[in-house]
Amino acid sequence: MPPKPGVIPLAPPLGTGGVLGGAFATIGRHWKQLLGFTVVVYGAAAALFGAVLAAAYAVFAHDIQHLSDAPESAGADELWPLLSAFGGVYLAGGAVMLVAGALVHAACPALLQDAVLGLPSSFGTLWRRALPRVWAVLGSLLVSGLIAAVPMVLLAATFFGMVLAFVSLLSDGPDGFGRLFLGGLLGVLLTGPPAVWLWVRFSLAPAVAVFERQGVVRSLSRSAQLVRGSWWRVFGVSLLASVMAVAVAYLVQLPLQLLSLIPTGPASPSDGSSGSAAAVTVAVMLAFVLLGAFVGQVVTAVFPPLVLGLLYVDERMRKENLGPALAEAAGVGATHHL
After folding, report:
1. Helices within 31-122 (DSSP H only)
2. Cβ pair 316, 225 in contact under 8 A
3. CA-to-CA distance for 264 and 16, rounded, in angstroms?
4. DSSP state, 272?
5. By CB neighbour count within 10 A (0-12 exposed, 13-18 middle, 19+ buried), where does 62 fall?
6. What is the model's pTM?
């Protein structure tokens, strides 16, 4: 019987159930640290984005009021500064959320360093491990995402062309649309597999960046090395984890969305307070919707990276005989970095 001081047995091979069960066990044992870290990171990101948005609104409040009062008189010289400013705010918010996502992504394998060995963890320890690795994790995610984005963009474009060609074919359009349909279908078949292949090949790079403290390039090449020979397994388990995370997030959001539909006041107030009652109703609905979206974001942001981190550990136990070293570290209670 292999030793199991933590969330997984320290001996290969781990089946699909072992990997998924280990991720659920990690959440069950360390949910306070994981939830607290995620709430702080995404909460800070949302607060920062809100502050930037409020500042932009305060600067351009007069222009916004003028445009709302007389939209027909707005010219390009008035619209362009507003579009540029709020476009910049949107890009800044996207960058902040990317960094926040990378930080949460780095926290998952950082937590697994203790969860696999059965050691206690703390919020401070998690922060000290994840923060120095955030840029390497972000770089790994961006590089692998950009590589996969090229065929993904082609996939979307060819799929769109395929749909248009099919609609034209049904409506007895010109014969040339039939060739466009075949070309779009061929494009989907040619661009889809490379996108999936690249995504799986580099999917362990963020875990490598945290566990082995490697840079972006080394993390990508190391991920490709570990995935070699196990592509289908990594693909199947990670895809299943993503589907499960989306399903759980939906099940969590559904009751909150239903609660947002419950009336919070009289349908037809007779005291002249219909405006305030409507405002309260909208605020409560928005609060429930935002809470559901936040909980769903936490689930989808945490569970797949935990599964990928455990896949990384399992691949190293399979190919590099890491299990005995982990068992020894867990037995003496030492803090061992994978």
Report:
1. 31-59, 61-69, 76-115
2. no
3. 45
4. S
5. exposed
6. 0.81
Contact 148, 195 (CB under 8 A): yes
- Residue 240 Cα distances to 19, 196, 294, angstroms: 11, 14, 22
Cβ atoms 137, 110 nearer than 8 A? no
User: Which string of b and e fits 111-129 if b means at least 16 CB within 10 Å?
Assistant: bbbbbbbbbebeeebbbeb
* Per-residue CA distances from 85 to 52, 57, 199, 201 (Å): 11, 9, 34, 39
* Rounded CA separation 251/259 (Å): 13
pLDDT tens readout for residues 284-325: 777 777 777 777 777 888 999 999 999 999 999 999 988 888
Query: Do residues 86 and 114 touch, judged by C-beta distance below 8 A?
Result: no
Tell me what percent of the chain is helix, strand and coil, each rounded to the nearest 5: 80, 0, 20
Would you tell me how many other CB atoms lie within 10 Å of the CB of residue 70? 9
Place of tokens 């047995």: 9
Alpha carbon 143 to chain centroid, angstroms: 15
Residue that wins the pLDDT comparison between 79 and 236: 236
* Among 17, 6, 24, 57, residue whose Cα is nearest residue 248: 24
**Binning pLDDT at 50, 70 and 90, where does residue 3 land?**
confident
CB 277 within 8 A of CB 265: yes
| Higher-confidence position of 215 and 252 | 215
